[in-house]
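[job 0412] stage=fold_complex status=start
inputs:
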Amino acid sequence: MKQVYDKVFNRYWSPYLAMALAGILSAVYFGITGTVWAVTGEFTRLGGHLLEWSGVDISDWAYFQLIHMNGTTFTRTDGWIVWGMFIGALIMILLSNSFKIRVPRQKRRLLQGLAGGFVAGFGARLALGCNLAAFFTGVPQFSLHSWIFIAATAIGTYLGTKLVNTSWWKGKPTLLKGNAAAPSAARKKIQPYVGAVLALAYAALIVYFYAAGKTMLGTAALFGAAFGILIERGQICFTSAFRDLWISGRAAMTKAIFVGMAVSSVATLIIILVNGMDPITKIAAPSTLIGGILFGIGIVMAGGCETGMMYRLMEGQVVFLPVFIGNIAGATALAYAWDHLGIFNAIVKPGKPINLITAMGPAGAIILTLALLAVGFGIAVYWQKNYRFGIGFKKGETKHVH
Amino acid sequence: MSIDFTLDLRGESCPYPVIYTLETLRDLKKGQLLQVITDCPSSFRNVPEEVVKHGYTLEQDPVRNGQEFLFYIRA
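[job 0412] stage=fold_complex status=done
writing structure:
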């Protein structure tokens, strides 16, 4: 019993397992609700509600009409995906005794987080999705826009890494001589008990949703928590999947995400064919490319994307509070700029939704998707083997040869 | 175990624990022992993996102390 507890809660799970499970669950969630696992659309609605509360009339903003402002965040499935993710992650963090208020020593991190969150929020919504709807759950919908978004995110994270590697951004740690660290004193473990109570209360809420006939809300609350549990236990980080390639050639997360998308693509195609559903296709336009680049820059500046930010905030990493605020502010700014500043007419309207299934049939779509994912996986493997911190691909320049 | 230097990175989030650790190791003399202390959960995985990949050795297994992690790395 103790061993099982240790394995489940005291160790992080394999990111491959976490991503494969998330891939299957997101396909099933699509089969049940007809919508995908996504978060930034709801962030934009939260921004819309904040505007409404402060007396701004948003009824004629085209972007809010596009994403629908029906009800409140607690009566929407997209809302419960978000809250479920926060709560599911928090339950696991408490059960594993990992919560701690972590305040960055370099105060510049807070401003960097706010700025990065804003750019990432703006970019994600410009592309009509973040690393989920335009990436992890976009590829399995065979929506072409997600491939443009992935390529653009790669470019953006490269530029972002250049920025955060400058000395004025990066700052300096203090290196002390000798054994100078005083580890914090061990405290009594109360977090797991709080986590257990929270888990029971949340389970009761889900049961209530089903009992009250709010089946879809119950399903969203359940799946949201499952996604939150998986991203926290697997420490899934879409930011690091790209950024770490540019920094030190680390590709563990990159490979896990490609595997997860491959699993999800197969599962989603089966569900589409069996249920006779239409895949969700988003517009592929210049805005997808520009939005993806901005998103890539922003997530590296912030140190996390809209998904990773969620469990990091629950872990008590204070820096992700300004990131969250920045995400919502950036998404809301995009909603304003969409029609008021002519963004839609300039860079969105020329595009059109393209789906691989419609373009080449289900067999062609899955073969092309899996082939592209395999190429991505192969690049990641090569990168991990040959790219080194501060050196890149050049060989024979390491200081220490072992 | 005689520790030559200590890098206290508590409060720093990704990717700075990895960057700071690798930068510091690059400037150490071969054979010196660096102690790194972090509290960013992702660093429990990415710091030891990157350190080993870049040719340094872990003097002992990483230690988890509550919400903090301790690494002992030989340059």
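[job 0412] summary: The mean pLDDT of chain B is 93.
[job 0412] exit 0
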